[in-house]
DNA sequence: ATTTAATCGAGACGGTACGTCGCGTCTTTTG
DNA sequence: CAAAAGACGCGACGTACCGTCTCGATTAAAT
């Protein structure tokens, strides 16, 4: 009953304990010493785990961190109840968008999220495969909420019918993203409010 | 007038030959094998230079690459004459912006620029000091061109007077930047044209 | 029962294969290019071994060479049977000593032994700790053979009873050692024969 | 009026000031940090001298140290008057030799001499060319004094006529040298006295 | 309840690159 | 033109991690 050597580890025997310890160690190290100084050996030692246990289940440091961060996000979402699964619809699109963006501003400043998400974003810029997974698993689901809210606004006539919501949302989301990623400007409530106003009414005189 | 101990190499004795060779080697290696596999040893060996000569003048791999890339940009700008120092003003703001953004789309696809600028952008996400230098020395000067063009448009009445041009430009520039940085969507002329239209006229019905 | 932090590699997991390869490489390099041009990197590369494997088990180049040379000596001794474990006793002390010293003269000229033993001797002159180990593990056991032979000679009356054998042996051994170490004179059978004669009968007339 | 490039510096223009400073720095450094950690750069910097000034006049670190040490010995000899230029002849050979050896024991323990002479001896073991110069310029002149004293003793009948003085002196000088060089035993007045007794009267009963 | 086979902690191994030190050469400026 | 200063190409240092590879010792599924 020989087995294909060096492949397909048996998931049913996997140690849950080790997995959690590795997530915790990875996130803690990235927060404490930064992503570049976080090493597989460091994670293993801090998690009280053999290196092979990491290499058996993940293919790279970025991979570990991505999973750890996804796990963290899931936990956070679960803990916070249903809050982020939809953008509130009070009938006032501008107000609703400003609220959500203000919450995002707060989140971007939270140190617990900042270190790992910056690290993953940076890695994703240069590593397309990881970048696409980062987007597909974390970013896109959140952007989809804006698409939904904008669609609803189109039905009430708050947004022109011809507008593509997937592009439209970038008018106020991407500027915030770029300021955060590249330090191209300060990030304040006033700024995001302005973005929403500009995006909704345009730059040209009416 | 004593000196900072054990430091401050004499700039006047610096070898111009080595500096050029290091720039060339760094850019070539990043393009050929990617940023993470580009090593100081590799740059030194390819440039026919001692490692110490790199460490004497730069503090890190990212530092070398940033200077090399700045130098490359300067050269490119010089070679191209005065073209990129201002955004053309034909009186039609939308057309002018679409033209410039289409040129940017082409540039973002140019492999000679893509590898190093992606690498620097990624490094800058995680290394604030470098990120700010990247922005100040490369990005901001280019964004300033948009500010100038938008100001001109305000004077002709194409743009509302109350609009802040520095923020306004982000409505069409940041979405393109984010798609390029994070692979959040395809990058086409049609896309950038749409961005300009949305940004100028807003999402809300008029 | 805690451990000294970050140290004490596990001897039982040590690779015998690597140890042998390192001994061989070290001795070969010292013989071929000389001690100063023998480098840890050179030994590692020639032995097909990582540098860390050397640093894990030895503290310096001299340390490696000393162990390699001890190993070589043990092997040589084993290969040669019991020959060098005792100085023959034919009843004629002078003849016996002359024979052993002639053999030593031959050995000192053997290139396989000369390079490493000179290197170790030189290092020992300047590095007391290594010097003492060199003496304790290599030199002293051989000198002890002379002590034994001289003791036997005292019992047969060939040597005066009051003589201290440990000092006595230096009268003929040290001159040879010094000529070899410091190039203070030629090394021949005639010379060592003379030393034995002078030492046994003294310089003063009888 | 071109000159053969890179050869034959002009001795008449040599800076005496620099030479002295280099000697002093070399001896001080060897005494303070040991020979291996003494570097050309260190000597130059301590002497307030350019590296080239050292390379112009000496071929190696050992070379500098040998000259510095010879200079030191000459100075010491001059300062001490005529003392070491001959071994006293009181008519009692044994007493005279014991006295000189006791003085040597003292000298070997003097830290000012020990560091550089050990370093040079070690270098000489492994570097035949330097070793021979060390012997010719420092050791042999001193051994010649013993030759002279032993010749005188042969004329008075204290030493047998057939004895070769150059070999005879090694019976008591070499053991002391070896104990000092290789740490093969303690160095005391008693020890050197014993050596003289054994050497003069031999080991065999009379 | 026992067997049994894969996972686990541990860490030695062959490597690559790091950032530093010193070598010996070369060049520039000063006395 | 020697001398100080020190940048340069180079090579080795000793260290940190990489990813692979054994080793017993659990440990959970299949007997």
UniProtKB/TrEMBL annotation, chains A, B, C, D:
It comes from the Bacteria. The keyword Transcription regulation applies. Keywords: DNA-binding, Transcription, Transcription regulation. This is TetR/AcrR family transcriptional regulator. Signal peptide: none annotated. Residues 16-76 form the HTH tetR-type domain. SUPFAM superfamilies: Homeodomain-like, Tetracyclin repressor-like, C-terminal domain. The keyword Cytoplasm does not apply. It comes from Streptomyces griseoincarnatus. It holds the Pfam family TetR_C_11. Residues 39-58 bind DNA. InterPro entries: Homeodomain-like_sf, HTH-type_TetR-like_transc_reg, HTH_TetR, Tet_transcr_reg_TetR-rel_C_sf, TetR_C.
